[in-house]
Amino acid sequence: MNVRSGGPVSGTRFSSAGRSGRHRFRSRSPRERATSTIIAIVIIVLVVGGAITQNVWQRQHAADIIAKGTSVEGTSLSCERTGGRRNRSSCQLRWEYVVDGQRYTFRDNQHTYRRWQTGLEGQRAEIFYDPERPDQAARGDLIVD
């Protein structure tokens, strides 16, 4: 009697040894191993490809906004944590800027800082924005006194 295990040895087949109560474990067939390997590779390629595509899109979007040339001065408000559990010390600045009396904020995904760095809040920078959609912005150069 062959049964698929759903417990901690998931994916391993075992067969009952009859009256002795012991089970013999058999490894998966070469075809099953090859299929599992191919599926794992496809998943990895999709995840990595998606991350690269998102990064390229964000950079291109920021470049498009900067190319429009409309800018105001903005101020950094806070440094928000980025990454998952492994990267707890990184953060990205949230910026505030005003266009025609309306306040906007955005998180700068292009620059990453360490949370322990001092003086991140209150920095000033040139903020480029899309005149047709002022809520779309990208950070330019920092303004140094």
Automatic annotation (TrEMBL):
<feature type="domain" description="DUF3592">
    <location>
        <begin position="72"/>
        <end position="137"/>
    </location>
</feature>
<keyword id="KW-0812">Transmembrane</keyword>
<protein>
    <recommendedName>
        <fullName>DUF3592 domain-containing protein</fullName>
    </recommendedName>
</protein>
<feature type="transmembrane region" description="Helical">
    <location>
        <begin position="34"/>
        <end position="52"/>
    </location>
</feature>
<keyword id="KW-0472">Membrane</keyword>
<dbReference type="Pfam" id="PF12158">
    <property type="entry name" value="DUF3592"/>
</dbReference>
<feature type="region of interest" description="Disordered">
    <location>
        <begin position="1"/>
        <end position="30"/>
    </location>
</feature>
<dbReference type="InterPro" id="IPR021994">
    <property type="entry name" value="DUF3592"/>
</dbReference>
<keyword id="KW-1133">Transmembrane helix</keyword>
